[in-house]
Write a structure and sequence with these properties.
Elements: H1 3-14, H2 19-30, H3 33-56, H4 75-88, E1 92-96, H5 102-113, E2 119-122, H6 131-135, E3 150-153, H7 164-170, E4 175-181, H8 194-207, E5 212-216, E6 235-239, E7 253-257, H9 259-269, H10 285-315, E8 319-321, E9 333-336, H11 340-352, E10 374-378, E11 390-394, E12 400-404, H12 409-426
Parallel strand pairs: 2-3, 2-4, 4-5, 5-6
Antiparallel strand pairs: 1-7, 6-7, 8-9, 9-12, 10-11, 11-12
Bound molecules: pyridoxal-5'-phosphate.
Length: 431
């Protein structure tokens, strides 16, 4: 054993990791070197993509000056939006701290494109939980349903693939917008690759060329070499306290898409007549911009953490989605425990490993927008940020934890080791 390895073992021991857990995890890590090398290459490409967009758009120190009040002529905001458009290969982008979260960004996208009498179609099954209230699947104040916008859904087939026949049937004269969620969210289905999303969009556009295709891109940014906007999506949407904020963005959401889609969204975000011209940035532009710069490497660390977790819990006999050998299209790792105690222990480990609030014990609670109790472990610099190491899941069968993030691979690794340590201490597993 070399000196570093010895020092590492001592460190981990002083930080609560027992010898059996340390050695088990070291053994698993060794099996992942080839996959990690692939992740490194993708990050390198995406880093160049982001850097090129910053250079091409002449990002300068003047862009970092804060604006207040109406925020007219905010050069930093305008430059960042051009950079986003270039990175995601779209005509235009709206990137704003006034977009409060991912759900808000998605609601903005839907409400700006759809008009009374239009129909929204999800060809990939049930959308993310919080969107049920936006759409009106669960009745809610101000939902699309209240504005006379109908909704149709085509579930995935049992094997997680698209139901082409019923998607074709569901398209009708009212269909205005098709929403495609890239990441599985709180569902046990596969996450779609950009290639699969491209095929789905092509199928839809062949049958109804004027329909708008929107992709909920949350958790997918920079995982692959291309983004859904480069395979036909008219609009992609996401949160800045996930992948593209690189852990530094303290708030915000983005929409990237065609000129018309972004214009409609801007008039909805602020006001008809004002659109994108207003919206002071209050000094957050440096964090949003630097966060985007770091995002490809931050996503790389999170991806390695997800692969490490998959390999560990798969080796222990739990169902993990995706599997440790499967190709990856987002940073989420699901582990099904079928046992509330193990699920809670996992979350306790993630929490104990956090840089912030490590002394807190996570407990299940009734979170707004969700229909069962949820347990969350997070000790983040940015409240609720899930590009930072975090785990959560609804307290119901299959007692699945959704694990994501880690601003560095080293921290993600320690978090997962700590989760295993806490489960090991319950006596319910043997390693
Ligand atoms: C996180 C997420 C959302 C909602 O974002 P919030 O910031 O939590 O409101 C929507 N869709 C998917 C797939 C997500 O992962």
């Amino acid at each position: 054993m070399n000196e570093q390895k010895q020092r590492l073992e001592q460190y981990y021991e002083s930080m609560g990791i027992s010898k059996p857990v340390f050695w088990f995890c070291s053994k698993i890590e060794k099996t992942l070197q080839e996959r990690f090398a692939q992740v490194d290459e993708i990050a390198e490409c995406n880093q160049m993509k982001v850097l090129k967009a910053m250079r091409d758009n002449r990002l300068s120190e003047a862009c970092f000056a804060p604006t207040t009040g109406y925020g007219y002529n905010d050069v930093g905001r305008e430059t960042l939006e051009k950079i986003y458009a270039d990175v995601f290969g779209t005509e235009d982008a709206l990137v704003r701290p006034q977009i409060t979260c991912g759900t808000h960004a998605l609601a903005l996208a839907l409400m700006s494109q759809l008009r009374p009498g239009d129909e929204l179609l999800s060809p990939v099954g049930k959308p993310y939980d919080t969107l049920e209230e936006v759409i009106g699947i669960r009745p809610s104040n101000g939902s699309l349903a209240e504005y006379g916008i109908s909704y149709r859904q085509v579930d995935l087939l049992a094997d997680g693939s698209f139901d082409w026949e019923n998607i074709e049937k569901a398209l009708n004269e009212k269909t205005k917008l098709v929403t495609i969620q890239r990441s599985k969210g709180y569902a046990s289905r596969p996450t779609f690759s950009v290639e699969q999303i491209g095929k789905l969009i092509a199928f839809i556009k062949e049958r109804k060329p004027e329909v708008l295709c929107m992709v909920d891109n949350c958790y997918g940014e920079f995982v692959e070499l291309t983004e859904p906007s480069q395979v036909g999506a008219d609009l992609i949407v996401g949160s800045l306290i996930k992948n593209p904020g690189g852990g530094l963005a303290p708030i915000g959401g983005y929409l990237c898409g065609t000129r018309e889609c972004i214009e409609r969204a801007a008039y909805r975000l602020t006001s008809p007549g004002l659109g994108r011209e207003v919206g002071a940035t209050l000094g957050v532009t440096p964090a949003l911009t630097q966060g985007l710069f770091l995002a490809p490497t931050v996503v790389k660390g999170a991806l390695k953490g997800a692969m490490f977790a998959a390999a560990i819990y798969e080796a222990l006999g739990f169902t993990v989605i995706p599997g440790s050998r499967a190709s990856r299209h987002d940073i989420i790792q699901e582990v099904e425990f079928h046992d509330p105690d193990i699920m809670v222990a996992f979350c306790e480990g993630i929490q104990a490993a956090a840089p912030v609030d490590s002394f807190v014990k996570p407990e299940p609670w009734d979170m707004p927008g969700y229909d069962s109790k949820v347990i969350m472990a997070a000790g983040a610099f940015v409240s609720g940020s899930s590009i930072e190491l975090s785990a959560d899941g609804p307290m119901k069968e299959p007692y699945a934890v959704y694990f994501q993030g880690g601003l560095t691979w080293e921290h993600a690794k320690y978090g997962i080791m700590m989760s295993l340590q806490k489960i090991y201490e319950t006596g319910k597993i043997h390693i």
